[in-house]
Predict the structure.
Amino acid sequence: MKKDNGAPLFMLITKIGHLLGYRSMKRMNTLETKPGQARILYSLRADGQLSQAELAKRSCITAPSMTVALKKMENIGLVEKALDSEDKRIVRINITEKGLEQVQRIDDAIQEMDQLICENMTAEERIIFRRLLLQVIANLGDNEGKEMYKMMREAHLDMHEHHTP
């Protein structure tokens, strides 16, 4: 790491992004869950029964990709579909018990990643690190990025609010 001491922050953050992406994909593969499927499960756990359109918006997934993902997830028992009781044209998506168990496994993997990220940091350093990361996010959240950040926050960050380092 010594060779990175003089590197611009942008390059260091990019390197962190690549390392996190690699580690998280490796870990998610052990759980046999794709990131989009995880977002779907978190949205359903947080919001309960949703229509496919609502779920696609909350999960930041296109409608065609959502259709494919839900079919796969339904086949392995993570979600189930049911007709809306008031409007039979609307199909509601529910998370199953197996889906909730999968979310717990993902939560455990996220906690493992948090531990790895903050390894050798004191509790105070973790608090400062979190504050600095939130400041970087705020700095990058210009007018163009605010809507995207809001959607990401609703879909992704809210699922982790109970996991503070």
Remarks:
- Residues 9-31 form the longest helix (23 residues).
- DSSP finds seven helices and three strands in the chain.
- The radius of gyration is 18 Å.
